[in-house]
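Subject: Sanity check before I submit

Could someone independently write out the structure tokens for this chain? I want to compare against mine line by line before I put it in a report. The sequence has 271 residues.
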Amino acid sequence: MQKRIIFIFLAFLVFFVLVNTGSTKEPKRLNREEQKALTANVSSVLEKVEGIKAVVPANRFAEEGKKRAKQTAEVFRTPEFQSSIEREQKRLNNEVFKKYTATCEKQKQEEVGPDPLEDKEQPETTQKIYLFISSSLPDETMHSYLNDISRANSGAVSIVPVMQGMINGIKNKGANKKYFSRILKEDMTCVDDFQHRKACDRFKTNILFQPPLFAKYGIERVPALVYDNDGQILIIQGDASIDYLMERINREAKQERLETLISKIRGRINE
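---
Independent answer below. Compare away.
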């Protein structure tokens, strides 16, 4: 690129000299000796240009960049930063998706609720089930997952859908509202009639937006189901139904609660 610029400049210079030498009214013509001298000068400069080699300077900030990247990663993993992410998650639930999703606390109250027959001294379960999904999945697939999760989440163990981010970014509230309003409909064919104040029924499932969970479990493609039981982590990825993915995981986990969830999804238990 540098050679080309110099060559164009020299060519323009020769043209300018040839055209504008002498009076503006009657341009002076160069004789043969003058033309040979000018050509020799141009050739000499071009030879020097051919000998120029472009050298990319070393990045003197490379080590500093690695150091700063390490510091950033350490800050990201601190409890304070993770707490700020959690606060932002709660703010989004309240301000953006309040009409269509419930907060974790509200979901526990409405869907789980206190069990009068439950042993009060029984320790809280450590089992966690995450379904990692994305807006890149077809609407029908997303709706099917949310429908199964809504049917299954009525006990001590629930399936939590997790997404990495919003539709076209957090600032695009219109696109986000339209998308989640669509996939959270219990009946995808239902049309809201706001003129008569009639809205379609929607799932009350809470969707988490947690990029750190994707990093924690190493999720690189969706859908993916993760079972985490106090350190026992089982992961399965693949485009399949939730009950099938859970069945595959339970071959190793061998948990009765997972069997119950599978039965609820398949309609064997209507509670």
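---
OP: Matches mine. For the report I'm noting this point. The first strand starts at residue 127 and ends at 132.
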